């Protein structure tokens, strides 16, 4: 959004997910195959396969996937994104009835279950199935920079979006500010809401006065 429609963006913040410009010399699918951590995304490619596993017991799926990194919130089996296709599924080996996590339980968990019972998982999974078209779209902005104020919040315990993946973002985002939470995993806004809100509010309050908006609109 900040890259393609800057006239609509005052400032932009990202949690865990780094920005890297698309490289025309790279086949994004072949590149991702070189990272074992992303094997789960290739497990998602065949329509219907991951849906069958994730929708079999939506409560179990959510209780396994959405957990904090706190010791008392861990399950006996660690979620491993390596070798998902070889194992035959993302949730293979986990308990059939795991306890609810500390960051998604009670009425909130039931609401998530009800929503996914209605929608299923095809919508989110289709995003992973659209890698090449998304990459081609990104290539159209490969030389463009994100010029508005930006915030990058990294989390030390995120095993997929590791903080090291954000190195070099300053080259493409001149007004980048960084914050880091070491004791935090992938679900940053759920695991550390108070600390994250403090970071966001402090950053927003310190933004410079509004600059004149660009008059170009790409919609």
CA(first)-CA(last) distance? 11 Å
Oligomer: single chain
Largest sheet: 3 strands, parallel
Radius of gyration: 19 Å
With helices defined by DSSP (H or I, 4 residues minimum), what is the helix count?
10
**Total strands:** 3
Query: What are the secondary-structure elements, in order, as H or E?
Result: EHHHHHHHHEEHH
Beta content comes to: 5-15%
Q: What is the arithmetic mean of pLDDT?
A: 94
What is the count of structural domains?
A: 2
- Give the overall silhouette: globular
- In what order do the strands lie side by side in the largest sheet? 1-2-3
Provide the structure class.
mainly alpha
Residue share in helix: 25-40%
Low-pLDDT stretches are: none
Give an overview in words:
- Helix 4 (58-65) packs across helix 6.
- The chain has ten helices and three strands.
- It folds into two domains: 1-21 and 144-212, 3-Layer(aba) Sandwich (Rossmann fold); 33-128, no CATH class.
- With 219 residues, the protein is mainly α.
- Helices cover 36% and strands 7% of the residues.
- The mean pLDDT is 94.
- Strands 1-2-3 form a three-stranded parallel beta sheet, covered by helices on one side.
- InterPro entries: AB_hydrolase_1, AB_hydrolase_fold, Epox_hydrolase-like.
In short:
The chain is mainly α. The chain contains 10 helices and 3 strands; from the N terminus they run βααααααααββαα. The protein has helices spanning 28-33, 39-43, 49-56, 58-65, 84-87, 106-119, 122-128, 131-139, 188-191, 193-205, and strands spanning 12-15, 150-155, 176-181.
């Amino acid at each position: 959004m900040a890259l393609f429609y800057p006239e609509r963006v005052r400032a932009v913040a990202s949690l865990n997910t780094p920005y890297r410009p698309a490289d025309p010399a790279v086949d994004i699918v072949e590149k991702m195959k070189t990272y074992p951590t992303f094997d789960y995304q290739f497990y998602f490619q065949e329509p219907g396969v991951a849906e069958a596993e994730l929708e079999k017991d939506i409560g179990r799926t959510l209780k396994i996937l959405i957990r904090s990194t706190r010791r008392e919130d861990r399950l006996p089996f660690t979620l491993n994104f390596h070798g998902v296709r070889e194992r035959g599924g993302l949730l293979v080996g986990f308990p059939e009835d795991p306890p609810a996590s500390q960051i998604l339980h009670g009425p909130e968990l039931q609401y998530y279950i009800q929503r996914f019972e209605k929608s299923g998982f095809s919508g989110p999974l289709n995003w992973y199935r659209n890698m090449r078209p998304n990459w081609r779209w990104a290539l159209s902005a490969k030389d463009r920079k994100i010029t508005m104020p930006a915030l990058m919040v990294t989390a030390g315990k995120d095993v997929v979006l590791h903080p090291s993946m954000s190195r070099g973002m300053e080259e493409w985002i001149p007004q980048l500010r960084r914050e880091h939470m070491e004791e935090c995993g992938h679900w940053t806004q759920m695991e550390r809401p108070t600390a994250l809100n403090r970071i966001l509010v402090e950053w927003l309050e310190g933004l410079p006065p509004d600059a004149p908006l660009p008059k170009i609109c790409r919609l």
